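> run fold Phosphomannomutase
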Amino acid sequence: MVAKPNQRDDVNPDESPDALAGLRARAQAWLDDDPDPTTRDELRGVLDRLPASRAELADRFAGPLTFGTAGLRGPLRAGPNGMNLAVVTAAAAGLVGWLAARDTSGPLVIGYDARHGSKEFAERTAQVATGAGRPALLLPRPLPTPVLAYAVRALGAVAGVMVTASHNPPQDNGYKVYLGASTGGPRGAGAQIVPPVDTEIEAAIRAVGPLAAVPLGEPGRVLGDDVVAGYVRATAGVIAPDGPRGLTVAYTPLHGVGAAVLTSVFARAGFAVPGIVAEQAEPDPNFPTVPFPNPEEPGATDRLVALAREIGADIALANDPDADRCAVAIPDAVRGWRMLHGDEVGVLLADHLIRQGRTGLYASTIVSSSLLRVLCEARGLPYGETLTGFKWIVRAESGDAELTYGYEEALGYCVAPDQVRDKDGISAALTFAELAATLKARGRTVADRLDELAAEFGVYLTDQLSVRVDDLREIENAMTYIRTKTPKTLLDEPVTSVRDLSPAADVLVLRTECARVVVRPSGTEPKLKAYLEVVEPVVDGDVPAARERAAASVRALRTETAAALGIW
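> ok
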């Protein structure tokens, strides 16, 4: 390449004086339109530190947060590439504009968790809705996401908004949209949005003009406790009214909003109120006792397990901060207390519901264990497999069968789709308690039931290779690497199937006779994820030996997968 006169080859155009002037101008235009004095002051501080703050400013203006099927999620900060009042105002205006363009009627119901900014973002969404002439209903206080999903259906809302970043770090927040029956259809009533709705709303957001021109109305109507009581009543009714209730449970909401609702549900259903980890019992947006408020993360449930030992619990349960996920720990005779994998909980719940005579469609995702499919085939029930995410699970189809149960390995379970068309960590926790109490009344344990399933179907062991990145190009490079240099063998067995779901989804599935690898970027975090599964038959009834062989195979598969992605 020939350099232009007076221009060095190693000069980055983005670092030129003209580029800096353009970046400064974009930031000033944003500042002039920002309705929040706090973030205006924050952005002025960044501008005042130029040119030293150039990289930070460029990151804030690298592009707008994209409104996808998970809505919005990002760090709390000024600028289009963050969560702030300006971004939320535009998102709300785009959403209500999209609803108006479809000539829909009915209220917008809005919920929020206890994260920094959540209440303010919810109240601004209500003002934008009423300013556009649409009724807005606010949940009465910080509440779990499943309560919002329930309210969309129970109140006949046209749509719902939940302000939450779920299990993301404390510096993040997010904005999820649910559709009502008129916009989502029978399977999508009360469910999160799916394409093409996401791109249509995104286009409507981009069409919003100056924020000063967005009309703001009254703050909307704050609902009473009736909607929460309705959720508690309906959720307590998910389990059989006359089943065993003798169970000691340890529980943590991980500084989130789940405790009050979960304990109410357990009490109404006839269970003793769980013992709660005291240091994590109250909502705290800083999540001071955990590095990441996600029960899947190492160390997040250490206090829960300690409490379980202290009170002699039969099981231990954890919700993530917005209580749409549920983690379970059980005592293990060999290893002590251990956290169950999401696939173990998912199959245990499915098996429990099937034993109770719950017919209908059972569904999971392409990254979840294959065991649910095998279980359904053995029990003569329809099974559906979907892409990752509950927005797809609740829309699963198999003939005329209605969805009875769905799960994904990332601790998400839907045990009552007619009430909450989404993952619900509270109804899942209650149903698992019913399962454990039923087993206990028969002199059995959850570990015993896992052994019984393994003896019947073999050991289906799953694991995950998860790589967090600072630069999203690293994920693109890894996906390109495995697509161009796809391994011919895994665990010394030939790869019998390679399924590439692009361009519809950035997913690659590799299978051998007894192993499976699914690779995809995370939809909510800067992570590359590889989902691993091995199937090991049980010989002569020796389940522990089969588990040992499976564990060794998974470790080897993890190493081979890292090499196949070029990240060893």
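Confidence is low (pLDDT under 50) at residues 1-13.
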